[in-house]
């Protein structure tokens, strides 16, 4: 038997060209199909996209409801801060007495121990106060977000918005002011 005159490398090159031609034909068919789907078949979902933007910081700073929440929040904090302030004042007075040095060594040692104890109590009170502060801050934000979530859902449905994004957390670099709905949301929130 006689071997064909084609070398292995020529055979591989010929095979590669045939595969490349086939791939090109497949890509042309896929592109034609995509064009037919996107341009010739009527869209199943023809609703227009309506986007709104709102600024949570503006709402947090200007809303009457948030101001009332903050007032209650501040009143509660002031009550919880009273024992901390009293302990601080007592510890300061005690430290001044110790520093004056007008007491016997035994009395001084007792006052130093009392001072250490009061400072530990003060530290615990401050930690508790900081914890309460964090909890109340979380509560305030959760309450505002709960209120706003309901308002935003109702507003979006009534006004036909597809999506409403928060200005600061959405990674929005630019938007036209005409899609800013903050003042309208703020107005609705203040009325509730």
How many angstroms does the end-to-end distance come to?
A: 96 Å
What's the architecture of the largest domain in CATH terms? 2-Layer Sandwich
Helix and strand pattern: HEHHHEH
Structural class: mainly alpha
How much of the polypeptide forms β-strand, as a percent range? Answer: under 5%
Strand count, sense and closure of the main sheet?
2 strands, parallel
Number of domains: 2
What is the CA-based Rg, rounded?
36 Å
What is the CATH class designation of the largest domain? Alpha Beta
Shape: elongated
Average pLDDT taken over every residue: 79
Q: In CATH terms, what is the fold-level topology of the largest domain?
A: Protein Binding, DinI Protein, Chain A
Instruction: Pick out the low-confidence regions.
Output: none
* Oligomerization: single chain
Enumerate the strands of the largest sheet in spatial order, edge to edge or round the barrel.
1-2
The helix fraction, in percent, is over 70%
């Amino acid at each position: 038997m006689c071997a064909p005159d084609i070398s292995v490398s020529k055979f591989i090159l010929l095979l590669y060209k045939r595969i490349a031609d086939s791939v090109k034909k497949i890509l042309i068919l896929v592109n034609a199909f995509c064009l037919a789907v996107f341009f010739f078949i009527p869209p199943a979902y023809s609703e227009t996209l309506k986007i709104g933007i709102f600024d949570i910081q503006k709402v947090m700073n200007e809303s009457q409801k948030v101001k009332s929440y903050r007032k209650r929040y501040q009143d509660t904090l002031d009550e919880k801060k009273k024992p901390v302030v009293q302990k601080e004042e007592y510890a300061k007075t005690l430290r001044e007495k110790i520093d004056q040095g007008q007491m016997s060594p035994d009395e001084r040692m007792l006052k130093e121990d009392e001072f250490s104890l009061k400072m530990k109590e003060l530290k615990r009170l401050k930690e508790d106060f900081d914890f309460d502060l964090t909890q109340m801050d979380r509560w305030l934000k959760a309450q505002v977000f709960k209120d706003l979530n309901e308002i935003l859902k109702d507003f979006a449905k009534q006004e036909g918005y597809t999506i409403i994004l928060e200005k600061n957390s959405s990674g929005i670099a630019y938007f036209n002011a005409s899609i800013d709905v903050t003042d309208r949301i703020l107005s609705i929130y203040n009325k509730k």
